[in-house]
Design brief:
about 280 residues, alpha+beta, 8 strands, about 20% strand, elongated
Length: about 280
């Protein structure tokens, strides 16, 4: 059958479909605002009901995506698209998108595992994928870290869920290891006494009862230019760096006062000289 453009009623088309498009746009704008308001309410409610901030944010993100998908389905029905067919189209599109975005789905699954297993939480200091930082946010697809110099690192959850993670904040106490090298000519016993007194005198160093042991002083190795002695003390995790830095500075002062040398790497080079006699000298 031939298609005759003259038989098309432009006014009828505008009335039939133009108004539907306008209504759909109005519904989209209003619905988007309402969804945003609902998400805010849900976020506040989840934060009050759930102590885990990461889980609350994660659930809020998922609910927000579902509400927006529902809004688009409603808008499509207003335009006149059959929602049954639309659901089938969404299913087919979802399959195609799923195959194309396998990495993103892996990140989503990784985010679910991180939320459930809790290898780290918001506010904890971790090392993962060679990166160090404080967990700022756990999103659906990514985890955000803040470095100590306030850089933002974004790591896919899929990679984090399948790689080793070092959590420096999870345990309540940590051992502080500091190694000092002394000259071979200095007395080891004197150096160990100085290190023991410095560690035990620090107010943030934990003693036996609050920690597995009192500070322990041991000779760890005989280096190329020094005898290496380690002081191993315990501190609460938030106090780790204070104890670490304070002890290094204090030990340097105490070693200097006692006249104990902390040698720097050095080599002794012997130059061998030979007297070379030329042929002219031999023949003269």
């Amino acid at each position: 059958m031939d298609f005759d453009i003259k038989n098309i009623n432009i006014e009828e088309l505008l009335v039939t479909y133009g108004l539907k498009v306008v209504y759909a746009l109005i519904a989209l704008v209003i619905g988007w605002v309402v969804v945003g308001f609902i998400i805010k309410l849900i976020k506040k409610a989840l934060h009050k009901a759930i102590n885990d901030l990461a889980l609350a944010n994660f659930l809020t993100s998922i609910i927000g995506v579902l509400l927006k998908v529902l809004l688009f389905i409603v808008v499509a029905s207003i335009v006149g698209i059959d929602t049954t067919s639309f659901a089938a189209i969404i299913g087919a599109a979802g399959l195609a998108i799923g195959l194309a975005l396998q990495g993103s789905l892996s990140n989503f699954a990784g985010g679910v595992l991180i939320i459930l297993l809790k290898p780290y939480r918001i506010g904890e200091f971790i090392e993962a994928k060679g990166m160090l930082g404080t967990v700022k946010e756990i999103q659906i697809f990514y985890t955000l870290l803040n470095t100590t110099d306030n850089k933002l690192i974004i790591i896919p959850n899929g990679e984090l869920s399948n790689s080793p993670i070092t959590n420096y904040s999870r345990e309540p106490i940590r051992r502080v290891d500091i190694t000092i090298g002394i000259s071979y000519g200095d007395d080891i016993k004197t150096a160990k006494e100085i290190m023991s007194k410095a560690a035990n005198a620090h107010p943030l160093v934990l003693k036996e009862g609050d920690a597995p042991s009192n500070p322990v002083i041991v000779v760890t190795s005989l280096g190329d230019s020094s005898v290496n002695i380690a002081v191993r003390s315990w501190a609460k995790t938030p106090d780790y760096w204070s104890v670490h830095n304070d002890l290094i500075e204090e030990l340097k002062y105490k070693m200097d006062e006692a006249g104990i040398e902390i040698p720097f790497p050095q080599r002794t080079v012997w130059m061998k000289t030979e007297n070379v006699v030329s042929e002219d000298t031999k023949n003269s």
